[in-house]
Design a protein that fits this description.
Strand order of the largest sheet: 3-2-1-4-5-7-6
Number of domains: 1
CATH superfamily: Vaccinia Virus protein VP39
Bound molecules: S-adenosyl-L-homocysteine
Structural class: alpha/beta
CATH topology: Rossmann fold
Strand content: 25-35%
């Protein structure tokens, strides 16, 4: 299932002129397939209402739709919204696309999938976490390794608990991320949380 999913996700169109300030980059299809497979196996995808916050290309949300979720994709930037709609059409998938800042997101969902921006200069990533934890029962979020403890603390002060952390290394465009000069490999985490009973 994962190999086939990765293959289908590889067709999802990438950003043409990525906005660096919004940290627009397409989640690598292999990582997306892994995240989606993990969530699927925990019963958090099929027949569930899933929100993709900062949906960008739609990699996570459209992938969830492929696996049988009802999907709402939230994205604020014009070009990304256009790309998201094109990608949905190309794959023949229906997803509700909501153009708004995630700070205005107010739907209740079963699951949030997200690969939010983590700027050195703002707490925007934590704002995504705050929203996700408030509005869903399970969260699958990608973040830079260096922020693990901060995010775990943040989750610890919410109605969720951390279920698990999976480690990955991904290759980012040179302009992004927390990589060193020599290598564009970036160490990241997939952090999984669930609402406490
Ligand atoms: N999962 C997406 C990741 C895109 S990168 C993919 O694989 O394509 C993060 C996305 O969040 C960008 O598209 C950016 O435009 C969007 N974004 C950044 N800040 C936002 C905000 N405050 N509200 C909504 N979307 C935001």
């Amino acid at each position: 299932m994962k190999t086939q999913l990765k293959k289908e996700l590889s067709n999802i169109g990438d950003f043409e002129n990525p906005r660096i300030s919004l940290e627009q980059y397409r989640t690598p299809p292999g990582l997306a397939a892994d995240l989606l497979h993990t969530a699927y196996m925990q019963d958090d995808i099929k027949d569930q209402k899933v929100a993709d916050l900062g949906a960008g290309t739609g990699m996570l949300g459209l992938g969830a739709r492929l696996l049988g979720a009802e999907v709402v994709a939230v994205e604020k930037e014009d070009d990304a919204v256009r790309l998201l709609r094109e990608n949905a059409e190309m794959l023949g998938l229906e997803a509700e696309v909501v153009q708004q800042d995630i700070e205005e997101f107010d739907q209740e969902v079963d699951t949030v999938l997200m690969n939010p921006p983590f700027s050195h200069h703002s707490d925007i990533g934590l704002k995504f976490w705050e929203k996700a934890l408030q509005h869903s029962d399970a969260v699958y979020g990608i973040s830079p390794r260096g922020l693990r403890e901060r995010i775990k603390d943040f989750v610890g002060n919410s109605s969720h608990e951390v279920l698990g952390v999976e480690e990955y290394s991904i290759s980012l465009p040179p302009s992004y991320g927390f990589h060193t000069e020599e290598s564009h490999e970036t160490e990241i985490d997939l952090i999984i949380t669930r609402r406490k009973e």
